[in-house]
Design a protein that fits this description.
- The complex is a heterotrimer.
- Chain B has helices at 19-26, 33-43, 55-65, 85-92, 94-107, 122-133, 137-141, 157-166, 193-212, 244-250, 273-276, 283-288, 307-320, 327-346, 350-363, 371-385, 387-392, and strands at 70-76, 110-118, 143-148, 188-192, 221-227, 234-239, 258-263, 269-272, 297-302.
- Chain B is an alpha/beta fold.
- Chain C has one domain (2-70): Alpha-Beta Plaits, CATH 3.30.70.
- Chain C contains 2 helices and 4 strands; from the N terminus they run E-H-E-E-H-E.
- In chain C, the strands form 2 sheets. Chain C has a two-stranded antiparallel ribbon. A two-stranded antiparallel sheet of chain C has the order 2-3.
- The chains are: A mainly alpha, B alpha/beta, C alpha+beta.
- At the B-C interface, helix 14 of B face loops of C.
């Protein structure tokens, strides 16, 4: 959850073209990418340990088919969904050259679905869900991501040509006679 | 053969020449296919849309690229504000233009023809539409009209293709060029209406006939628009190689003394009058001298008007006509325009002059289309031709707004 | 025959993120408005891997490396 939240915050900062003295622009997306890959590794470990845990009797199917487990069906299913969304996001990012910018962008937006689903999954399935440290950690993560997203929504587009381009386009849009 | 060729025939003010009259006067084209292409190559006819590219070579390339799916775009957008030649041709001799278009369609095995006319040129659009209805069924069936939005770059090749394909007249990244992948991803011939009209005549009388006109070693005739500063401004058909001075005389002479000439429209060059008078109006000869014929607009700058102020006005227009797709063009032309207008309004200063020179170098070649390049060439020619005026502005009095 | 790599840029896709200039300052600098000015000519062998990284880092895939073969 911590890693994933950091990844989302860094993603938002990338689209905001964040930079400061000593922190060049390229660092933000680069860190975002590396942490995302790391998240996938830890996620793999998390899934493996959850599946082999003798207490939960999950079976490998539960890791890929949502809502197929008997143990905490709903909450675990959400985790499976979040996992699969994440895999889609990472795979399309690695293959961005092949699929093109438009398709990549469309799938990457699923990140905004994947994160809350993962957080809710954590609350629903975790045995430590109500312990103080987990709640505190969750609050920090949720607040950080929320602030980042709200800030992003309030900012004008980072592309300086966004409005001028749109204005020109609307003036030259016609349908030729058939 | 009289001096006039494209503009020969019934009085130009009488409206469009109908199909029956056109055929009665000129007969039908006799050259076709390979023979026509080779005649075009031998004639040396160059495109009249601004780039002056040899038409025969263009047709040759398209003939090999086409496999029956080619598209012919008749470019009558005429986005250059001071140019009137294309409109005049479409309004008075639409069938010459259409002849050229359908010759292209048959020779290059095209599947369709699009007649692309500036939406603001209503009379020309109507004339072409009406003329199309007079053509035979086989020609009408493959042709459609398209209106070019009223912006400067709408007539640019990739913008025209973009409008026809997707309904948005913004230039697109090339390669791939329209000649390889244009409308519907098919090889596309983008040809100016005047060029097509010349081709319609060459297909009847041959390349030797085309070359029989011309002065000072140049071949053929061409249409130019003399803008302002003469007794009778307007469109002229002149022999290639005619000097600017001779063309001015054909328009009744100067109405007031001129200090400079803007040759080729807003992407063209400012030239000192003394240097301009003897320039032959021929694409090849001008290119050898480092300037271009462009779309054939000859703008005479009266000595009573301020070159700096007029340059600033045109730069503002060119900046506003950027399609805002590429940063260097949108921001660069705006910056150049702002600096130029500051000099025009508040007087010269070292910083703005330095900025003009620096940005002119940095902006060139860094857009997806040639709009920034054209604007920069225009700006540079102004800095050169009006060097004294820029250095001393506003030591002399300023003229009234345009 | 030798193969040369040239950097090409799609000026319409470019949105002035500027990561390329940070990663390849030897060949790319930014103009007054944040858009890249790319040095002309082939990319030298030592800079090739850095150029590849700069191309990969572009958030909008505006950069590409074009290979050209020319006779020695």
């Amino acid at each position: 959850m911590i890693l994933l939240s950091a990844v989302v915050v860094l993603g938002v900062l990338s689209s905001l073209r964040f930079q400061s003295t000593g922190w060049p622009r390229f660092l933000t997306p680069a860190l975002h990418r590396n942490l995302a890959l790391m998240t996938l590794v830890f996620l793999g470990l998390h899934i493996i340990t959850a599946v082999v845990d003798p207490f939960t009797h999950l079976g490998w199917l539960a890791a890929v088919v949502p809502f197929s487990s008997y143990y905490r069906t709903l909450w675990l299913g959400l985790g499976t969904i979040a996992f699969e969304l994440l895999v889609a996001i990472v795979v399309t990012s690695l293959l961005r050259n092949v699929i093109g910018q438009a398709a990549w962008r469309l799938i990457h937006w699923l990140a905004y679905a994947s994160w809350p689903v993962a957080v809710i999954h954590g609350f629903g399935t975790g045995t430590d869900a109500l312990s103080a440290w987990f709640v505190a950690l969750s609050i920090v993560c949720v607040v950080s991501v929320t602030i980042a997203i709200v800030y992003r929504l309030l900012q004008p587009p980072a592309d300086p040509l966004a409005s001028a381009r749109g204005e020109f386009r609307s003036g030259v849009s016609r349908r030729p006679n058939q | 053969m009289s001096g006039l060729r494209l503009l020969a025939g019934p009085d130009l003010g009488a409206g469009p020449e109908g199909y029956a009259d056109h055929v009665r006067r000129l007969g039908q084209p006799t050259l076709a296919g390979r023979a026509l292409i080779e005649a075009l190559v031998r004639s040396g006819l160059t495109g009249r849309g601004g780039a002056s590219f040899p038409a025969g070579l263009k047709w040759r390339a398209l003939a090999s690229a086409s496999n029956g799916s080619a598209v012919i775009v008749v470019n009558g957008a005429e986005g250059e504000p001071q140019s009137h030649k294309d409109r005049l041709l479409m309004v008075s001799r639409p069938h010459l233009v259409l002849d050229g278009a359908f010759l292209a369609a048959r020779t290059l095995r095209a599947a369709s023809v699009v007649v692309y006319v500036g939406e603001e040129h209503r009379a020309a659009y109507a004339a072409m539409e009406r003329a199309l209805r007079e053509r035979q069924q086989a020609e009408r069936r493959i042709t459609r009209m398209a209106a070019a939005p009223h912006r400067y770059v709408a007539g640019e090749s990739s913008a025209a293709v973009h409008l026809i394909d997707a309904g948005i007249a913004t230039p697109t990244t090339t390669p791939p060029h329209p000649r390889e992948q244009g409308v519907a991803a098919a090889p596309t011939l983008m040809q100016n209406v005047e060029t097509l009209a010349h081709i319609a005549l060459i297909a009847r009388y041959g390349d030797a006939w085309y070359r029989s006109a011309g002065r000072r070693g140049a071949a053929g005739t061409l249409l130019v628009t003399i803008a302002g500063g003469v007794a009778k401004p307007g469109v002229l058909e002149i022999e290639a190689g005619t000097t600017i001075a001779e063309a001015v005389a054909m328009c009744g002479g100067l109405s007031e003394p001129a200090c400079a000439v803007l040759l080729g429209g807003y992407y063209g060059n400012w030239l000192p009058a003394a240097k301009a008078w003897d320039l032959p109006l021929d694409a090849e000869a001008l290119r050898a001298g480092g300037v271009g014929l462009g779309c054939g607009v000859i703008g005479l700058q009266p000595a009573s008007r301020c070159g700096v102020c007029d340059t600033a006005r045109i730069m503002r227009y060119l900046a506003e006509e950027s399609s805002a797709q590429c940063g260097p063009c949108f921001f660069g032309l705006r910056a150049l325009s702002d600096a130029c207008n500051r000099v025009a309004e508040r007087g010269t200063n070292r910083d703005d002059m330095a900025r003009l020179k620096r940005w002119a170098v940095e902006v060139e070649g860094r857009g997806a289309c040639k709009h920034p390049d054209g604007a920069v060439m225009f700006m540079r020619s102004a800095l050169s031709t009006f060097a004294d005026e820029f250095a001393s502005h506003p030591a002399h009095w300023r003229q009234q707004p345009a | 025959m030798k193969t040369e790599a040239h950097m090409t840029i799609d000026r319409i896709k470019c949105e002035g993120h500027g990561l390329c200039a940070e990663l390849l300052p030897e060949l790319i600098r930014l103009d007054d408005w944040g858009y890249p000015i790319i040095a002309h000519g082939p990319i030298s062998k030592p800079l090739a891997p850095l150029a590849q990284r700069a191309v990969a880092a572009c958030p909008v895939l505006a950069l590409a490396l074009r290979r050209e073969s020319r006779p020695r």
